[in-house]
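Hi support team,

I've been running sequence recovery on a batch of backbones for a student project. Most finish fine, but this one hangs at about 90% for roughly twenty minutes before it completes. I'm not sure whether the input is malformed or the queue is just slow. I've pasted the structure tokens below so you can try to reproduce it. Let me know if you need the job ID as well.

Thanks,
M.K.
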């Protein structure tokens, strides 16, 4: 089966590589010539555990190719995935210019029946816009070629994307014809042999499923952060509360860990887009607006704790930061809490030295030389007034506390992810502050 994937960002590269890994012939296309040249050399634009090995294995076998020529990519293909970006506009709505631009280009280049699949996260109704763009391009050519547009949203977790794609909880496919359903059924058959379900539904429902799923997960996170903040005021321990409610199977224990807010390329963008969609249709999504508001406020909580500890006098102080990416196992810093915390510390006259296992280069692009960067976790501590734990990478879980204490000017730890024990650290002579814990 021959497949084209348009867009070699996070979603497109993972999708194309995993499809090639089960034996399909995949051509990935991107307008960024430098990115394609790097991919042809095995240089990936993102960090994702296991992805580099899959790309190398399948490029060497000839099943996975990279090109800047869309016409070359879709020649002979049965399906073409659109996996380009949908960045939020100033009003929070999803920007569809790249999706619709690709649709027009496919219409100008296709030579046979094709199933065009929107893999990008797009608002309800986008498939109809894609269908219109394709149809107009074919009409201008005087072509009567037929096609189908389908929706196949991704549910990949950054840091676990390969496992998620190969062993999905579910595969959601929105289709408009039996022919399109047959193509998608064959495409995903290798991933359903172990019982993973493919859920076929109408296209608008598939488009909504993606947004609803991310909105629900974001809601759980903001809810727990709200509860954590109240726990601090009441003298309760949110970790105990979390265990108490998480044991209820109706609630579950996933995504109920309090912290300093969610980030990344999905939750912030998708919540904003869904709120905007509601507004455009005369309906106010009050819960989701609150989810977004709580999340933005939560990114300021760690700085507030630092500021209180130092009695509002941060000028001239220096801080060590462990973690820059919005979550472990990725170098993605889009909407990361670290960006807000760094900005606040710098505005208060403090300086920062940060360490992250994989996100330092990305931080240099986003923050630049406004902060310092260390070669390892302990080097970041030298001469710092306190340690701020921002991203819960594994290597930060069990540090040498005596070594940490010696490196810091004063033994103070601000734990933005609740991975340390307050009583344990206080017994070792540290000042400790977590999120909603004693």
């Amino acid at each position: 089966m021959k497949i084209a994937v348009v867009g070699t960002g996070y979603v497109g590269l993972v999708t194309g590589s995993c499809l090639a890994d089960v034996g399909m012939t995949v051509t990935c296309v991107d307008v960024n010539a430098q990115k394609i040249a790097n991919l042809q050399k095995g240089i990936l634009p993102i960090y994702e555990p296991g992805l580099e090995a899959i790309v190398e294995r399948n490029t060497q076998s000839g099943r996975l190719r990279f090109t800047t020529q869309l016409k070359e990519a879709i020649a002979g293909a049965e399906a073409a995935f659109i996996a380009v970006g949908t960045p939020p506009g100033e009003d929070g709505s999803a920007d569809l210019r790249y999706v619709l631009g690709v649709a027009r280009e496919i219409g100008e280049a296709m030579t046979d029946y094709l199933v065009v699949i929107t893999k990008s996260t797009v608002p309800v109704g986008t498939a109809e816009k894609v269908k219109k763009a394709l149809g107009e391009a074919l009409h201008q050519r005087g072509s009567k070629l037929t096609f189908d547009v389908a929706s196949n949203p991704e549910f990949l977790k950054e840091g676990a994307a390969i496992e998620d794609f190969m062993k999905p909880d579910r595969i959601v496919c929105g289709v408009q014809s039996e022919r399109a359903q047959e193509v998608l059924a064959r495409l995903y058959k290798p991933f359903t042999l172990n019982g993973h379900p493919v859920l076929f539904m109408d296209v608008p429902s598939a488009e909504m499923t993606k947004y609803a799923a991310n909105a629900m997960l974001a809601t759980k996170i903001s809810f727990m952060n709200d509860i954590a903040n109240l726990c601090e005021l009441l003298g309760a321990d949110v970790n105990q509360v979390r265990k108490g409610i998480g044991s209820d199977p109706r609630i579950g224990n996933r995504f109920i860990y309090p912290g300093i807010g969610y980030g990344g390329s999905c939750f912030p963008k998708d919540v904003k887009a869904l709120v905007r969609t509601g507004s455009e249709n005369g309906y106010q999504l009050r819960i989701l607006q609150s989810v977004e508001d709580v999340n933005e406020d939560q990114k300021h909580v760690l700085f507030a704790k630092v500021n209180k500890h130092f009695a509002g006098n941060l000028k001239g102080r220096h801080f060590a930061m462990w973690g820059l990416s919005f979550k472990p196992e990725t170098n993605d810093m889009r909407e990361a809490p670290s960006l807000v915390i760094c900005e606040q510390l710098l505005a208060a006259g403090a300086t920062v030295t940060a360490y992250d296992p994989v996100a330092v280069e990305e931080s240099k692009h986003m923050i630049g030389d406004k902060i310092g960067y260390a070669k390892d976790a302990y080097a970041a501590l030298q001469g710092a007034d306190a340690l701020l734990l921002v991203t819960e990478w594994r290597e930060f879980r069990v540090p040498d506390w005596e070594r940490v204490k010696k490196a810091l000017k004063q033994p103070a730890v601000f734990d933005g992810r609740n991975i340390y024990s307050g009583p344990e650290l206080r017994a070792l002579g540290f000042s400790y502050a977590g999120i909603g814990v004693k």
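--
Follow-up from support: It reproduced on our side and the slowdown came from queue contention, not your input. The first strand starts at residue 2 and ends at 6. No action needed from you.
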